[in-house]
Structures are given as C-alpha cells and as structure tokens.
Amino acid sequence: MLKTSAKRLSVRAICLAAVTFVTVAVTAGVAWAAYTDNMYPTQYEQTACFSESGSDGQVSCQTDNSALTYYPDESGSNALEAVDRTVVHRVLADQFGPTDLTVSYDSTPSYSGNAETDIIFEESSTGLSSSAAGMTFCNNAADGLRCDQQYIRIRGGGYYTSGVTCHETGHAVGLLHGSSASPRKSNSDERLGCMETPTDHFEGLEANNIELINNTY
Ligand SMILES: [Zn+2]
Question: From ligand 1's centre to the CA of 177, what distance in Å?
C-alpha cells in the first residue's frame, strides 16, 4: 500500500470530495457504533470507489442505496449449485433482511444501465488467491463512494458457507476487516462477527455491524 504514494495521494484527493458528501452518515456511524467503525470509508480505508474486473484486495465502496437486490447465478460456468443458492437466500434473509436494508431476490437480473442488480453471486475461483475462499469487487461504480453492482465470487468445493457468504455480502455493503476499522481491531476479533478473518463457517452479523448498516442506509 505504500509503494505508489503519488498515485495514492491523487486518489485520496478525489476521495475527500466524496467523503464530504456523506459527512452526516459517517459522523452518525462514529457516534453510534459502540465498538468500532468498520464501515467504508474510515481513516484507514478511503480509496475512492471505482469499477474493477476483479478484486484489488481492498473494499472501497458502499452499495448505492438501501434497496439491496441480489442474484445467485443460476446458469453458465459460474452458476451456484442449488444447495449454495439456498445458503445465499438464507443469509440474505436471516442476516441482512432484519437490518434497515430492504433485501430482495432479483429473478431477472440487470447488468446494464444505472439500476443494476446490486449483488451478483458467482461460484468460481477465477482471480482468487490460493488462501482466499471468496472475494467481492465493484463492477460498476456509481460515484466515488457507492457501487451500482458488486460481484461476489466464492470458490466451489464446500466454501459456500453461511459465514463466508455473510462476510462477502458484508463487504458488498461496505463493511471492512478489523485492520481497516477505526479504531483498529484485530482481524480475528470476535465482535466483528462474520467480518472477522479467518471467517467462521457459521458466523453471522454481530451488533456492531448491524448498527453501522442501519446508520448508513
Ligand atoms: Zn474479507
């Protein structure tokens, strides 16, 4: 992260404008979060949201509004097996449904325009480092803060657990690891719920994550 300081400086300058735009939401998050602020942006993660074709290892977007639509890919080479689609539906309903996000399954997903399906779930290992179970990346940035469409890619062979699905969906709405939280926490801190790494296979959102989601959306 230190190697391209000139580039980072310019990105940060762009980001400051975006951050100003959401001062109220960010301030509210800090004021209400009892434990730590792990909602993008924080002082440790403020790279502007941009469109990617694969993960750069950083989470730098919120989703673009509180109406969260999702689609687990059902056909083609990145399709989820039926059992994995069931996990996705259950995690979205049980973990994210009770938050202030309005979660809905989009059976006719949109991949273009400015109101795309917010999260596309794929089963694939393409672009994943050998140590990673999954990744999240913004395919279409709405602005410097928010993403119109995020892709979640989780490898096959038993990795589509509720914990990993919760973790990657958390990234898609802007939740960060402990090392990017303010104040910083251990990545394995239990109070980060499913956002801890390594991710427990059955972990869900904990109070701190829910509070941040509800203060943001
Ligand atoms: Zn992660």
Answer: 6
